[in-house]
Amino acid sequence: MSAGQAIELLNHAAFNDELPPSQNLMQQYEKMIVTTLLRSFALDFMIKDQNGGNVDTPLTARQYGLKDEDAQKRYDLKNRGDYSDKNVRKQYHSNNFIDRNREASELKKQGKLTDAYTGQKIAPNGKYDLDHTISAKEIHDDRAVYLANLNGADLAVADSNLNHTNQSINRAKGKKTMDQFLADLNKKQNEYETRITQLKKEKNLTDKERKELNKLTNLSQANAEKMKEADAKARKEYNKTITKAYLSDKKTYINAGKDALNTGWKMGARQTLGLILAEVWIIARQRFPLIMEKMKGKFSLKEFLLEAAGAFKEAFLAVREKFKELITAFANGMLAGILSSISTFIINFFTGTAKHAVKMIREFWGSITQIFDLLVFNRQNLSPGELAREISKVVSLAAAVLAGTLVAERLESTGIGDLPVIGEALTIFLSGLTTGVISISLVYFIDHSKEIQKLVKFLDGFADQLELKRQHYAQLNEQIKQKVSELSSLPIDQLNKQLAHVQMMTQQMKLAGTDDELNEIVTNTIRTMGLNLPYQDREGLTQFMQDKQAVLHFE
Predict the structure, then answer these.
(1) In the chain, domain spans
(2) Which of 51, 382, 409, 448 lies 20 to 30 Å (CA to CA) from residue 80?
(3) Residue 256: how many CB atoms within 10 A of its CB?
(4) pLDDT, tens only, 313-351
(5) CA angle 277, 400, 389 (to 5 degrees)
Protein backbone atom coordinates (compact mmCIF):
# COMPACT_ATOMS: atom_id res chain seq x y z
CA MET A 1 0.00 0.00 0.00
CA SER A 2 1.36 3.39 -0.96
CA ALA A 3 1.36 6.38 1.39
CA GLY A 4 -1.22 7.99 -0.91
CA GLN A 5 -3.58 5.01 -0.59
CA ALA A 6 -3.16 4.98 3.20
CA ILE A 7 -4.04 8.67 3.43
CA GLU A 8 -7.03 8.17 1.12
CA LEU A 9 -8.37 5.53 3.53
CA LEU A 10 -7.71 7.76 6.55
CA ASN A 11 -9.41 10.73 4.85
CA HIS A 12 -12.64 8.72 4.67
CA ALA A 13 -12.30 7.11 8.11
CA ALA A 14 -14.72 8.00 10.91
CA PHE A 15 -12.63 9.36 13.80
CA ASN A 16 -14.31 9.55 17.20
CA ASP A 17 -14.09 12.96 18.91
CA GLU A 18 -14.64 11.29 22.31
CA LEU A 19 -11.52 9.10 22.12
CA PRO A 20 -7.93 10.22 22.83
CA PRO A 21 -5.83 10.55 19.63
CA SER A 22 -3.77 7.40 20.37
CA GLN A 23 -6.84 5.15 20.73
CA ASN A 24 -8.36 6.67 17.60
CA LEU A 25 -5.16 5.97 15.67
CA MET A 26 -4.91 2.35 16.86
CA GLN A 27 -8.48 1.69 15.70
CA GLN A 28 -7.97 3.32 12.32
CA TYR A 29 -4.73 1.47 11.51
CA GLU A 30 -6.40 -1.84 12.36
CA LYS A 31 -9.29 -0.92 10.04
CA MET A 32 -6.76 0.07 7.38
CA ILE A 33 -5.15 -3.39 7.51
CA VAL A 34 -8.54 -5.11 7.23
CA THR A 35 -9.67 -2.80 4.40
CA THR A 36 -6.45 -3.54 2.50
CA LEU A 37 -7.09 -7.26 2.93
CA LEU A 38 -10.66 -6.99 1.67
CA ARG A 39 -9.77 -4.86 -1.33
CA SER A 40 -6.66 -6.80 -2.32
CA PHE A 41 -8.36 -10.19 -2.40
CA ALA A 42 -11.86 -9.15 -3.55
CA LEU A 43 -13.35 -10.13 -0.18
CA ASP A 44 -15.92 -7.32 -0.04
CA PHE A 45 -18.62 -9.99 0.21
CA MET A 46 -17.41 -10.70 3.76
CA ILE A 47 -18.85 -7.38 4.91
CA LYS A 48 -21.00 -6.16 2.03
CA ASP A 49 -22.99 -8.02 -0.59
CA GLN A 50 -25.66 -6.14 -2.52
CA ASN A 51 -27.14 -9.13 -4.35
CA GLY A 52 -26.80 -11.89 -1.82
CA GLY A 53 -24.05 -13.76 -3.65
CA ASN A 54 -23.55 -17.50 -3.51
CA VAL A 55 -21.98 -17.71 -0.05
CA ASP A 56 -23.92 -16.96 3.14
CA THR A 57 -22.65 -14.13 5.35
CA PRO A 58 -24.36 -12.66 8.44
CA LEU A 59 -25.56 -9.74 6.30
CA THR A 60 -26.89 -11.81 3.39
CA ALA A 61 -28.48 -14.32 5.78
CA ARG A 62 -30.54 -11.49 7.29
CA GLN A 63 -31.41 -9.83 3.98
CA TYR A 64 -31.88 -12.76 1.61
CA GLY A 65 -32.22 -15.90 3.72
CA LEU A 66 -29.96 -18.92 4.19
CA LYS A 67 -28.47 -20.97 1.34
CA ASP A 68 -26.42 -23.33 3.51
CA GLU A 69 -28.50 -26.46 4.18
CA ASP A 70 -27.18 -27.13 7.69
CA ALA A 71 -27.79 -23.52 8.77
CA GLN A 72 -31.29 -23.61 7.25
CA LYS A 73 -32.10 -26.81 9.17
CA ARG A 74 -31.04 -25.15 12.41
CA TYR A 75 -33.24 -22.17 11.56
CA ASP A 76 -36.33 -24.25 10.66
CA LEU A 77 -39.14 -23.58 13.12
CA LYS A 78 -39.52 -27.24 14.02
CA ASN A 79 -35.88 -27.29 15.18
CA ARG A 80 -35.51 -23.92 16.88
CA GLY A 81 -39.09 -23.73 18.16
CA ASP A 82 -41.61 -20.90 18.07
CA TYR A 83 -40.86 -18.02 20.46
CA SER A 84 -44.52 -18.00 21.52
CA ASP A 85 -43.87 -21.41 23.14
CA LYS A 86 -43.43 -20.97 26.91
CA ASN A 87 -40.56 -23.49 27.04
CA VAL A 88 -38.68 -21.65 24.29
CA ARG A 89 -39.10 -18.30 26.05
CA LYS A 90 -37.88 -19.84 29.29
CA GLN A 91 -34.48 -20.56 27.70
CA TYR A 92 -34.02 -16.82 27.13
CA HIS A 93 -34.65 -16.04 30.81
CA SER A 94 -32.28 -18.51 32.47
CA ASN A 95 -28.64 -18.80 33.59
CA ASN A 96 -27.06 -15.33 33.54
CA PHE A 97 -30.51 -13.69 33.44
CA ILE A 98 -31.33 -15.20 36.85
CA ASP A 99 -27.88 -14.34 38.24
CA ARG A 100 -28.17 -10.70 37.15
CA ASN A 101 -31.59 -10.36 38.79
CA ARG A 102 -30.20 -11.85 42.00
CA GLU A 103 -27.35 -9.31 41.99
CA ALA A 104 -29.79 -6.49 41.24
CA SER A 105 -31.94 -7.44 44.21
CA GLU A 106 -28.98 -6.91 46.54
CA LEU A 107 -28.00 -3.64 44.88
CA LYS A 108 -31.58 -2.36 45.16
CA LYS A 109 -31.63 -3.03 48.91
CA GLN A 110 -28.45 -0.96 49.23
CA GLY A 111 -29.91 1.84 47.09
CA LYS A 112 -27.20 1.28 44.45
CA LEU A 113 -29.29 -0.04 41.55
CA THR A 114 -29.52 2.39 38.61
CA ASP A 115 -32.13 2.37 35.86
CA ALA A 116 -30.04 2.01 32.68
CA TYR A 117 -32.69 3.72 30.54
CA THR A 118 -33.44 6.75 32.75
CA GLY A 119 -30.17 7.20 34.65
CA GLN A 120 -32.11 7.40 37.94
CA LYS A 121 -31.59 5.29 41.05
CA ILE A 122 -34.24 2.61 41.62
CA ALA A 123 -35.77 3.02 45.08
CA PRO A 124 -35.36 0.13 47.57
CA ASN A 125 -39.13 -0.45 47.35
CA GLY A 126 -39.33 0.28 43.60
CA LYS A 127 -40.36 -2.28 40.99
CA TYR A 128 -38.01 -3.06 38.13
CA ASP A 129 -37.48 -5.52 35.27
CA LEU A 130 -34.39 -6.89 33.54
CA ASP A 131 -34.66 -5.99 29.86
CA HIS A 132 -33.13 -7.75 26.87
CA THR A 133 -31.88 -4.62 25.10
CA ILE A 134 -31.96 -6.53 21.81
CA SER A 135 -35.23 -8.37 22.34
CA ALA A 136 -35.08 -12.13 22.85
CA LYS A 137 -37.62 -12.50 20.02
CA GLU A 138 -35.37 -10.58 17.58
CA ILE A 139 -32.39 -12.79 18.50
CA HIS A 140 -34.47 -15.97 18.26
CA ASP A 141 -35.51 -15.01 14.71
CA ASP A 142 -32.07 -13.79 13.54
CA ARG A 143 -30.80 -16.08 10.74
CA ALA A 144 -27.22 -14.88 11.33
CA VAL A 145 -27.26 -16.63 14.73
CA TYR A 146 -27.99 -19.99 13.07
CA LEU A 147 -25.47 -19.37 10.28
CA ALA A 148 -22.75 -18.89 12.94
CA ASN A 149 -24.10 -21.97 14.79
CA LEU A 150 -24.54 -20.05 18.05
CA ASN A 151 -27.06 -20.43 20.86
CA GLY A 152 -29.46 -17.47 20.69
CA ALA A 153 -30.34 -17.81 24.38
CA ASP A 154 -26.68 -17.34 25.35
CA LEU A 155 -26.45 -14.20 23.20
CA ALA A 156 -29.68 -12.84 24.69
CA VAL A 157 -28.49 -13.14 28.29
CA ALA A 158 -24.98 -11.77 27.69
CA ASP A 159 -24.11 -9.00 30.16
CA SER A 160 -23.93 -6.42 27.36
CA ASN A 161 -27.55 -7.19 26.40
CA LEU A 162 -29.12 -7.08 29.88
CA ASN A 163 -30.19 -3.79 31.46
CA HIS A 164 -32.39 -3.05 34.47
CA THR A 165 -35.19 -0.54 34.04
CA ASN A 166 -38.63 0.22 35.44
CA GLN A 167 -41.44 -2.16 34.58
CA SER A 168 -43.33 0.40 32.50
CA ILE A 169 -40.48 0.94 30.03
CA ASN A 170 -39.58 -2.75 29.79
CA ARG A 171 -43.15 -3.90 29.16
CA ALA A 172 -43.93 -1.09 26.72
CA LYS A 173 -40.77 -1.94 24.77
CA GLY A 174 -41.54 -5.66 24.69
CA LYS A 175 -40.38 -7.27 21.42
CA LYS A 176 -39.72 -3.96 19.66
CA THR A 177 -36.29 -2.81 18.62
CA MET A 178 -34.97 0.22 20.49
CA ASP A 179 -35.53 2.43 17.43
CA GLN A 180 -39.14 1.28 17.10
CA PHE A 181 -39.82 1.85 20.80
CA LEU A 182 -38.30 5.34 20.83
CA ALA A 183 -40.20 6.30 17.66
CA ASP A 184 -43.49 5.18 19.25
CA LEU A 185 -42.64 6.96 22.49
CA ASN A 186 -41.87 10.18 20.64
CA LYS A 187 -45.21 10.07 18.80
CA LYS A 188 -47.15 9.64 22.04
CA GLN A 189 -45.09 12.05 24.19
CA ASN A 190 -47.57 14.96 24.00
CA GLU A 191 -50.49 12.63 24.64
CA TYR A 192 -48.76 11.21 27.71
CA GLU A 193 -47.87 14.65 29.10
CA THR A 194 -51.45 15.89 28.68
CA ARG A 195 -52.83 12.82 30.44
CA ILE A 196 -50.27 13.13 33.29
CA THR A 197 -51.35 16.76 33.84
CA GLN A 198 -55.03 15.73 33.89
CA LEU A 199 -54.46 12.95 36.40
CA LYS A 200 -52.36 15.15 38.70
CA LYS A 201 -55.22 17.65 38.88
CA GLU A 202 -57.64 14.98 40.09
CA LYS A 203 -58.07 14.92 43.87
CA ASN A 204 -59.25 11.36 44.36
CA LEU A 205 -57.72 8.91 41.91
CA THR A 206 -59.02 5.38 41.54
CA ASP A 207 -56.55 2.51 41.86
CA LYS A 208 -56.63 2.11 38.07
CA GLU A 209 -55.88 5.82 37.56
CA ARG A 210 -53.00 5.70 40.07
CA LYS A 211 -51.44 2.82 38.15
CA GLU A 212 -51.93 4.70 34.88
CA LEU A 213 -50.25 7.82 36.31
CA ASN A 214 -47.33 5.76 37.61
CA LYS A 215 -46.93 4.02 34.24
CA LEU A 216 -47.03 7.26 32.22
CA THR A 217 -44.64 8.99 34.64
CA ASN A 218 -42.16 6.12 34.29
CA LEU A 219 -42.41 6.23 30.49
CA SER A 220 -41.88 10.00 30.43
CA GLN A 221 -38.60 9.51 32.33
CA ALA A 222 -37.11 7.43 29.48
CA ASN A 223 -33.82 8.99 28.37
CA ALA A 224 -33.52 8.50 24.60
CA GLU A 225 -29.76 9.08 24.58
CA LYS A 226 -29.09 6.51 27.30
CA MET A 227 -31.35 3.98 25.56
CA LYS A 228 -29.63 4.50 22.20
CA GLU A 229 -26.25 4.17 23.91
CA ALA A 230 -27.27 0.89 25.59
CA ASP A 231 -28.65 -0.43 22.29
CA ALA A 232 -25.50 0.51 20.34
CA LYS A 233 -23.29 -1.19 22.95
CA ALA A 234 -25.43 -4.34 22.95
CA ARG A 235 -25.53 -4.58 19.13
CA LYS A 236 -21.81 -3.98 18.80
CA GLU A 237 -21.01 -6.93 21.11
CA TYR A 238 -23.79 -9.08 19.60
CA ASN A 239 -22.60 -8.60 16.00
CA LYS A 240 -18.96 -8.94 17.05
CA THR A 241 -19.71 -12.35 18.62
CA ILE A 242 -21.60 -13.53 15.52
CA THR A 243 -18.90 -12.30 13.11
CA LYS A 244 -16.12 -13.89 15.16
CA ALA A 245 -17.94 -17.24 15.27
CA TYR A 246 -18.69 -17.03 11.55
CA LEU A 247 -15.08 -16.24 10.61
CA SER A 248 -13.76 -18.93 12.97
CA ASP A 249 -15.92 -21.65 11.39
CA LYS A 250 -13.88 -23.84 9.06
CA LYS A 251 -16.96 -24.36 6.89
CA THR A 252 -17.07 -20.63 6.07
CA TYR A 253 -13.75 -20.89 4.32
CA ILE A 254 -14.51 -24.20 2.60
CA ASN A 255 -17.80 -22.81 1.24
CA ALA A 256 -16.10 -19.62 0.11
CA GLY A 257 -13.32 -21.63 -1.50
CA LYS A 258 -15.81 -23.84 -3.36
CA ASP A 259 -17.79 -20.84 -4.56
CA ALA A 260 -14.62 -19.08 -5.59
CA LEU A 261 -13.59 -22.09 -7.69
CA ASN A 262 -17.02 -22.21 -9.30
CA THR A 263 -16.82 -18.54 -10.27
CA GLY A 264 -13.39 -18.90 -11.84
CA TRP A 265 -9.97 -20.20 -10.83
CA LYS A 266 -8.37 -16.75 -10.73
CA MET A 267 -10.96 -15.26 -8.38
CA GLY A 268 -10.95 -18.56 -6.46
CA ALA A 269 -7.23 -18.39 -5.83
CA ARG A 270 -7.40 -14.75 -4.67
CA GLN A 271 -10.41 -15.18 -2.40
CA THR A 272 -9.32 -18.47 -0.85
CA LEU A 273 -5.88 -17.09 -0.05
CA GLY A 274 -7.48 -13.88 1.23
CA LEU A 275 -9.80 -15.78 3.56
CA ILE A 276 -6.90 -17.71 5.04
CA LEU A 277 -4.86 -14.53 5.51
CA ALA A 278 -7.90 -12.94 7.20
CA GLU A 279 -7.77 -15.77 9.74
CA VAL A 280 -4.01 -15.19 10.19
CA TRP A 281 -4.66 -11.52 11.01
CA ILE A 282 -7.53 -12.35 13.40
CA ILE A 283 -5.30 -14.75 15.38
CA ALA A 284 -2.24 -12.46 15.35
CA ARG A 285 -4.35 -9.41 16.28
CA GLN A 286 -5.39 -11.09 19.54
CA ARG A 287 -1.74 -11.09 20.69
CA PHE A 288 -1.19 -7.34 20.21
CA PRO A 289 -3.06 -6.11 23.35
CA LEU A 290 -1.03 -8.62 25.41
CA ILE A 291 2.23 -7.46 23.83
CA MET A 292 1.37 -3.82 24.52
CA GLU A 293 0.32 -4.53 28.11
CA LYS A 294 3.57 -6.43 28.69
CA MET A 295 5.63 -3.48 27.39
CA LYS A 296 3.64 -0.68 29.02
CA GLY A 297 6.26 0.03 31.67
CA LYS A 298 9.29 -0.16 29.40
CA PHE A 299 8.60 0.13 25.69
CA SER A 300 11.19 -1.04 23.17
CA LEU A 301 10.46 -0.79 19.45
CA LYS A 302 12.90 -3.63 18.77
CA GLU A 303 11.19 -5.95 21.27
CA PHE A 304 7.75 -4.95 19.94
CA LEU A 305 8.70 -5.94 16.37
CA LEU A 306 10.21 -9.25 17.54
CA GLU A 307 7.00 -9.97 19.49
CA ALA A 308 4.99 -9.12 16.34
CA ALA A 309 7.08 -11.63 14.37
CA GLY A 310 6.32 -14.25 17.03
CA ALA A 311 2.59 -13.47 16.90
CA PHE A 312 2.44 -14.00 13.13
CA LYS A 313 4.54 -17.17 13.36
CA GLU A 314 2.04 -18.67 15.84
CA ALA A 315 -0.88 -17.48 13.69
CA PHE A 316 0.46 -19.20 10.56
CA LEU A 317 1.05 -22.45 12.48
CA ALA A 318 -2.52 -22.37 13.83
CA VAL A 319 -4.01 -21.65 10.39
CA ARG A 320 -2.00 -24.42 8.71
CA GLU A 321 -3.40 -26.89 11.23
CA LYS A 322 -6.96 -25.55 11.07
CA PHE A 323 -7.21 -25.58 7.26
CA LYS A 324 -4.83 -28.46 6.58
CA GLU A 325 -7.17 -30.24 4.14
CA LEU A 326 -8.09 -27.12 2.17
CA ILE A 327 -4.49 -25.90 1.93
CA THR A 328 -3.20 -29.31 0.79
CA ALA A 329 -5.99 -29.93 -1.72
CA PHE A 330 -6.21 -26.48 -3.31
CA ALA A 331 -4.53 -26.40 -6.73
CA ASN A 332 -2.48 -29.54 -6.01
CA GLY A 333 -0.75 -28.05 -2.99
CA MET A 334 0.22 -24.75 -4.62
CA LEU A 335 -1.41 -22.87 -1.73
CA ALA A 336 0.85 -24.56 0.82
CA GLY A 337 3.94 -23.26 -0.95
CA ILE A 338 2.55 -19.73 -1.26
CA LEU A 339 1.62 -19.62 2.44
CA SER A 340 5.10 -20.77 3.35
CA SER A 341 6.58 -17.87 1.33
CA ILE A 342 4.19 -15.35 2.90
CA SER A 343 4.91 -16.63 6.41
CA THR A 344 8.67 -16.41 5.79
CA PHE A 345 8.33 -12.88 4.40
CA ILE A 346 6.29 -11.51 7.35
CA ILE A 347 8.43 -13.12 10.05
CA ASN A 348 11.70 -12.09 8.38
CA PHE A 349 10.38 -8.58 7.77
CA PHE A 350 9.60 -7.88 11.43
CA THR A 351 12.74 -9.67 12.66
CA GLY A 352 14.90 -7.77 10.18
CA THR A 353 13.21 -4.44 10.89
CA ALA A 354 13.81 -4.96 14.63
CA LYS A 355 17.55 -4.90 13.91
CA HIS A 356 17.15 -1.41 12.46
CA ALA A 357 14.88 -0.12 15.27
CA VAL A 358 17.36 2.53 16.47
CA LYS A 359 17.78 3.88 12.94
CA MET A 360 14.00 3.89 12.45
CA ILE A 361 13.43 5.96 15.58
CA ARG A 362 16.16 8.38 14.53
CA GLU A 363 14.43 8.88 11.17
CA PHE A 364 11.03 9.18 12.89
CA TRP A 365 12.00 12.18 15.06
CA GLY A 366 11.17 14.65 12.29
CA SER A 367 7.63 13.26 12.20
CA ILE A 368 7.43 13.34 16.01
CA THR A 369 8.20 17.07 15.88
CA GLN A 370 5.31 17.58 13.43
CA ILE A 371 2.98 15.56 15.66
CA PHE A 372 3.81 17.55 18.80
CA ASP A 373 3.39 20.77 16.85
CA LEU A 374 -0.17 19.60 16.07
CA LEU A 375 -0.89 18.44 19.62
CA VAL A 376 0.58 21.42 21.49
CA PHE A 377 -0.31 24.35 19.25
CA ASN A 378 -3.25 23.03 17.15
CA ARG A 379 -3.19 26.23 15.10
CA GLN A 380 -6.25 25.22 13.06
CA ASN A 381 -8.31 24.53 16.23
CA LEU A 382 -9.09 21.00 15.04
CA SER A 383 -11.53 18.81 16.97
CA PRO A 384 -10.01 15.72 18.70
CA GLY A 385 -11.21 13.49 15.85
CA GLU A 386 -9.79 15.75 13.12
CA LEU A 387 -6.58 16.15 15.12
CA ALA A 388 -6.23 12.36 15.21
CA ARG A 389 -6.78 12.27 11.45
CA GLU A 390 -3.96 14.77 10.79
CA ILE A 391 -1.61 12.94 13.15
CA SER A 392 -2.46 9.64 11.46
CA LYS A 393 -1.39 11.09 8.10
CA VAL A 394 1.99 12.10 9.52
CA VAL A 395 2.48 8.63 11.06
CA SER A 396 1.35 6.87 7.86
CA LEU A 397 3.77 8.84 5.72
CA ALA A 398 6.59 8.10 8.17
CA ALA A 399 5.70 4.39 8.31
CA ALA A 400 5.45 4.19 4.52
CA VAL A 401 8.90 5.76 4.16
CA LEU A 402 10.46 3.63 6.91
CA ALA A 403 8.90 0.34 5.81
CA GLY A 404 8.69 0.97 2.08
CA THR A 405 12.28 0.22 1.11
CA LEU A 406 12.50 -2.87 3.30
CA VAL A 407 9.19 -4.22 1.98
CA ALA A 408 10.23 -3.71 -1.64
CA GLU A 409 13.62 -5.38 -1.09
CA ARG A 410 12.22 -8.41 0.72
CA LEU A 411 9.32 -8.89 -1.71
CA GLU A 412 11.77 -8.86 -4.57
CA SER A 413 13.99 -11.45 -2.88
CA THR A 414 11.04 -13.84 -2.27
CA GLY A 415 9.56 -13.51 -5.76
CA ILE A 416 6.04 -13.17 -4.28
CA GLY A 417 5.22 -10.21 -6.50
CA ASP A 418 5.92 -12.27 -9.65
CA LEU A 419 3.35 -14.97 -8.84
CA PRO A 420 0.64 -15.18 -11.52
CA VAL A 421 -2.91 -14.07 -10.62
CA ILE A 422 -2.21 -13.31 -6.94
CA GLY A 423 1.18 -11.57 -7.04
CA GLU A 424 -0.20 -8.03 -7.27
CA ALA A 425 -2.84 -8.64 -4.55
CA LEU A 426 -0.21 -10.12 -2.23
CA THR A 427 2.15 -7.21 -2.79
CA ILE A 428 -0.59 -4.68 -1.93
CA PHE A 429 -1.70 -6.61 1.15
CA LEU A 430 1.78 -7.30 2.54
CA SER A 431 2.74 -3.64 2.04
CA GLY A 432 -0.45 -2.56 3.84
CA LEU A 433 -0.03 -5.09 6.65
CA THR A 434 3.60 -4.21 7.37
CA THR A 435 3.00 -0.46 7.06
CA GLY A 436 -0.05 -0.76 9.34
CA VAL A 437 1.81 -2.69 12.04
CA ILE A 438 4.77 -0.28 11.81
CA SER A 439 2.26 2.59 12.20
CA ILE A 440 0.78 0.96 15.31
CA SER A 441 4.27 0.47 16.75
CA LEU A 442 5.15 4.13 16.12
CA VAL A 443 1.93 5.33 17.79
CA TYR A 444 2.74 3.12 20.77
CA PHE A 445 6.29 4.51 20.79
CA ILE A 446 4.82 8.04 21.01
CA ASP A 447 2.60 6.97 23.91
CA HIS A 448 5.11 5.06 26.03
CA SER A 449 8.78 5.67 25.20
CA LYS A 450 10.98 7.42 27.79
CA GLU A 451 12.35 9.79 25.15
CA ILE A 452 8.86 11.03 24.31
CA GLN A 453 7.97 11.35 28.00
CA LYS A 454 10.99 13.66 28.41
CA LEU A 455 9.79 15.72 25.44
CA VAL A 456 6.28 15.92 26.91
CA LYS A 457 7.73 17.10 30.23
CA PHE A 458 9.73 19.78 28.41
CA LEU A 459 6.69 20.92 26.42
CA ASP A 460 4.56 20.98 29.58
CA GLY A 461 7.10 23.38 31.10
CA PHE A 462 7.08 25.42 27.90
CA ALA A 463 3.29 25.52 27.99
CA ASP A 464 3.44 26.67 31.63
CA GLN A 465 5.75 29.51 30.60
CA LEU A 466 3.32 30.53 27.86
CA GLU A 467 0.48 30.51 30.38
CA LEU A 468 2.49 32.67 32.80
CA LYS A 469 3.19 35.14 29.98
CA ARG A 470 -0.47 35.16 29.04
CA GLN A 471 -1.41 35.92 32.65
CA HIS A 472 1.27 38.65 32.79
CA TYR A 473 -0.09 40.41 29.69
CA ALA A 474 -3.67 40.02 30.90
CA GLN A 475 -2.67 41.70 34.19
CA LEU A 476 -0.80 44.43 32.29
CA ASN A 477 -3.89 45.02 30.15
CA GLU A 478 -5.98 45.52 33.29
CA GLN A 479 -3.43 48.03 34.64
CA ILE A 480 -3.51 49.97 31.35
CA LYS A 481 -7.30 50.11 31.45
CA GLN A 482 -7.17 51.33 35.06
CA LYS A 483 -4.74 54.11 34.08
CA VAL A 484 -6.92 55.16 31.12
CA SER A 485 -9.90 55.25 33.47
CA GLU A 486 -8.04 57.60 35.83
CA LEU A 487 -6.76 59.90 33.06
CA SER A 488 -10.16 60.17 31.39
CA SER A 489 -12.12 60.36 34.66
CA LEU A 490 -14.24 57.56 33.21
CA PRO A 491 -15.40 54.78 35.61
CA ILE A 492 -13.82 51.42 34.77
CA ASP A 493 -17.20 49.75 34.12
CA GLN A 494 -18.09 52.40 31.53
CA LEU A 495 -14.66 52.05 29.93
CA ASN A 496 -15.20 48.28 29.67
CA LYS A 497 -18.57 48.89 28.01
CA GLN A 498 -16.97 51.22 25.46
CA LEU A 499 -14.23 48.69 24.76
CA ALA A 500 -16.89 46.04 24.25
CA HIS A 501 -18.66 48.31 21.73
CA VAL A 502 -15.40 48.88 19.86
CA GLN A 503 -14.60 45.14 19.82
CA MET A 504 -18.07 44.38 18.50
CA MET A 505 -17.67 47.08 15.84
CA THR A 506 -14.32 45.58 14.80
CA GLN A 507 -15.84 42.12 14.42
CA GLN A 508 -18.74 43.50 12.37
CA MET A 509 -16.37 45.47 10.15
CA LYS A 510 -14.43 42.29 9.35
CA LEU A 511 -17.65 40.79 8.00
CA ALA A 512 -18.74 43.89 6.05
CA GLY A 513 -18.75 43.52 2.29
CA THR A 514 -19.20 47.11 1.07
CA ASP A 515 -18.25 50.69 2.04
CA ASP A 516 -21.89 51.45 2.78
CA GLU A 517 -22.01 48.58 5.28
CA LEU A 518 -18.82 49.85 6.94
CA ASN A 519 -20.25 53.38 7.25
CA GLU A 520 -23.48 51.99 8.69
CA ILE A 521 -21.57 49.99 11.32
CA VAL A 522 -19.46 52.99 12.41
CA THR A 523 -22.50 55.29 12.53
CA ASN A 524 -24.49 52.83 14.66
CA THR A 525 -21.54 52.40 17.07
CA ILE A 526 -21.15 56.19 17.48
CA ARG A 527 -24.87 56.50 18.15
CA THR A 528 -24.83 53.61 20.66
CA MET A 529 -21.82 55.04 22.53
CA GLY A 530 -23.36 58.55 22.55
CA LEU A 531 -20.25 60.25 21.16
CA ASN A 532 -20.39 64.04 20.50
CA LEU A 533 -19.02 64.73 17.02
CA PRO A 534 -18.62 68.05 15.13
CA TYR A 535 -20.91 66.75 12.37
CA GLN A 536 -24.32 65.07 12.23
CA ASP A 537 -24.22 62.72 9.26
CA ARG A 538 -22.10 61.50 6.35
CA GLU A 539 -22.70 64.72 4.38
CA GLY A 540 -21.64 66.77 7.40
CA LEU A 541 -18.49 64.63 7.71
CA THR A 542 -17.60 65.37 4.06
CA GLN A 543 -18.03 69.13 4.62
CA PHE A 544 -16.02 68.97 7.85
CA MET A 545 -13.13 67.16 6.16
CA GLN A 546 -13.09 69.73 3.32
CA ASP A 547 -13.03 72.71 5.74
CA LYS A 548 -9.34 73.63 6.24
CA GLN A 549 -10.22 75.82 9.24
CA ALA A 550 -12.04 73.05 11.11
CA VAL A 551 -10.41 71.68 14.28
CA LEU A 552 -11.15 68.15 15.53
CA HIS A 553 -11.55 67.97 19.29
CA PHE A 554 -12.89 65.32 21.71
CA GLU A 555 -15.39 65.88 24.52
Answers:
(1) 3-45+263-448, 64-237, 490-555
(2) 51
(3) 25
(4) 888 888 888 777 666 655 545 666 677 777 777 777 677
(5) 95
